[in-house]
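User: Could you go from structure to sequence for me? I need the amino acid at each position, not a summary. Structure tokens:
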């Protein structure tokens, strides 16, 4: 039979047959261990830090070469002289870089507290509550932070009367409240997204076990949301910390304001670059470990679907 299959007959090559590259696989001798991967990552991070330190030193050295004032005062002496003021503020007053960190803590704490309830309100079965929370989230999430700072600095009173005593409200407390509002809006979205990411079968299973909605939310859904919310929450804390120098525009004695005051007191404009670079390095040294920790938390709490 001419049409019968014969094992000795040569196979006619199909035009669609194309060469296929086999997947590349590392041999057992070429595979990196976990310790090698961690060591490589650590060396890369150390290299980045060393590069930043070297770049900072070159900029400081370049600025020092342009000094035209007192030749006996070097950049290092200038930084040593004014660093205590930039870090903790003048004696008897609360300010400097420490104030930036305090404002970031207060704003994040208050914004997280409000954002949790607003985020829960966005998934509320009550239509009015859901729409009000959605409106507040979109309003403060899409408003410029500097505009909010100006608005609430002028809106909130400068002092309050309690009985016969008048108590002043520091500017940094009003700034902390103003910065907490956009944090509230973004935390609200984090909470809403985390709750929505939980499979609906969790709700149905809890309902079949006669759990109320309140019990289901607080005992079943929200505990599962924590690991989903931590990494973006930490990211927003870093963003907030980097945004706290905005309060210097409103006259708050934070690190930025006191750096400007130090430059004005000495009248040394040529030290502007090293001074601001010195202040920037504080923010970097404070925020960079948080960023590394955030990446580690993201890898640890990754959701496998």
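Assistant: Here is the amino acid at each position, in order:
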């Amino acid at each position: 039979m001419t049409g019968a299959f014969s094992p000795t007959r040569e196979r006619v090559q199909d035009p669609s047959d194309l060469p296929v590259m086999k997947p590349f696989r590392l041999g057992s001798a070429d595979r990196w261990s976990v310790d090698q991967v961690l060591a490589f990552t650590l060396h890369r991070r150390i290299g980045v830090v060393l590069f930043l330190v070297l770049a900072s030193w070159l900029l400081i050295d370049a600025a020092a070469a342009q000094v035209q004032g007192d030749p006996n005062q070097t950049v290092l002496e200038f930084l040593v002289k004014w660093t205590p003021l930039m870090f903790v503020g003048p004696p008897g007053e609360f300010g400097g870089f420490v104030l930036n960190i305090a404002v970031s803590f207060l704003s994040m704490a208050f914004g997280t507290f409000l954002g949790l309830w607003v985020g829960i309100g966005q998934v509320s079965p009550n239509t009015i509550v859901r729409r009000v929370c959605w409106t507040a989230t979109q309003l403060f999430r899409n408003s410029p932070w500097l505009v909010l700072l100006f608005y609430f600095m002028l809106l909130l009173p400068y002092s309050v009367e309690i009985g016969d005593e008048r108590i002043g409200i520091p500017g940094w407390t009003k700034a902390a409240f103003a910065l907490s509002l956009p944090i509230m809006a973004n935390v609200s979205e984090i909470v809403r997204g985390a709750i929505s990411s939980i499979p609906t079968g969790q709700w149905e299973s809890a309902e079949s076990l006669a759990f109320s909605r309140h019990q289901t939310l607080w005992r079943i859904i929200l505990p599962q949301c924590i690991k989903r919310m931590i990494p973006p929450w930490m990211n927003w804390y870093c963003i907030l910390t980097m945004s706290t120098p905005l309060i210097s525009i409103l006259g708050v004695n934070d690190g930025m304001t006191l750096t400007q005051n130090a430059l004005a007191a000495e009248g040394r404009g040529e030290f502007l670059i090293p001074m601001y670079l010195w202040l920037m390095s504080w923010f970097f040294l404070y925020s960079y470990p948080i960023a590394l920790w955030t990446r580690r938390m993201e890898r640890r709490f990754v959701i496998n679907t």
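One structural detail worth keeping in mind: The two ends are 55 Å apart (CA to CA).
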